[in-house]
Design brief:
It is a single chain. The protein is built from six helices and two strands; from the N terminus they run H-H-H-H-E-E-H-H. Strand 1 and strand 2 form a beta hairpin. Helix 1 runs antiparallel to helix 2, helix 1 crosses helix 3 and helix 4 packs antiparallel against helix 5. The longest helix has 33 residues. The chain is elongated. It starts with a helix and ends in a 27-residue tail after the last helix. Bound molecules: protoporphyrin IX containing FE (2 copies).
Length: 176
């Protein structure tokens, strides 16, 4: 079956969001693990951590249309909570890179590593909220209800403007 462009765009956004969720959870887990292990930060755990952290940047071009659409769609505090979340994640990545490359190890009274871990930990509750409010079951249900209630468009495939949720009836009167 041919996919509608809208459906494939929504599918792509969902894939991007779920991939971001996975890499953020991986970054948090490996960061925490390396911290708990505390042995010079070496080894495969930190390599995994760097890969997961940098994957956030790699995914940015795919996330950017999702962000733009979300920002156009809604105003209010939820929007600013998402933007704050974005700023914290970027700050964590930037401070992680600054520390790892040695480009910037202290920022006034705090170290780049303190900024890194602080920003990452502050992002955790916002991540939980963002994923639940924007990507959760309830958000998806609301979107599908909205889609079902949207007045149908007339077009070549739908000359009578029949709502999408009304399936074709095999015994429609006058259809034969
Ligand atoms: C949103 C979560 C996080 C992201 C996106 C993230 C991302 C990054 C990035 C991009 C780097 C630079 C990697 C490199 O080029 O070597 C880094 C380094 C580092 N991160 Fe994280 N991080 C996160 C959470 C954490 C947490 C929670 C901890 C510890 C409790 C942590 C500990 C470290 C350490 C110790 C390094 C330095 C590794 C080195 O010296 O090579 N990170 N992180
Ligand atoms: C690096 C991680 C992420 C950042 C920085 C980020 C940031 C944003 C921002 C700024 C918006 C636009 C404002 C808004 O709608 O509230 C947004 C929208 C959205 N995000 Fe995220 N997000 C991230 C990860 C996720 C994850 C993990 C999920 C779901 C599991 C998700 C699902 C969504 C959804 C469904 C939208 C709304 C799109 C629309 O209304 O069309 N995001 N995100």
């Amino acid at each position: 079956m041919r996919q509608r462009p809208l459906a494939s765009a929504a599918g792509g956004a969902r894939q991007t969001n779920l991939t971001l969720l996975a890499v953020l959870l991986a970054a948090l887990a490996t960061g925490g693990l390396a911290f708990a292990a505390g042995t010079g930060w070496g080894g495969p755990v930190l390599v995994g951590h760097a890969v997961a952290g940098l994957a956030v940047l790699v995914l940015a071009p795919w996330k950017s249309p999702v962000v733009r659409r979300g920002l156009v769609r809604r105003a209010g505090p939820g929007r600013w909570a998402s933007v704050t979340f974005g700023v914290l994640v970027l700050l964590a990545v930037a401070a992680g890179l600054a520390h790892a490359t040695g480009a910037l190890t202290v920022l006034g009274p705090v170290s780049a590593m303190q900024v890194h871990v602080g920003a990452a930990l502050a992002a955790v509750p916002l991540l939980a909220w963002h994923a639940a409010a924007r990507g959760g079951v309830r958000a998806r249900r609301d979107r599908s209800v909205r889609r079902a209630l949207t007045p149908p468009r007339r077009g070549p495939g739908n000359p009578n403007g029949v709502p999408r949720w009304v399936g074709p009836s095999p015994t429609r009167p006058g259809s034969r």
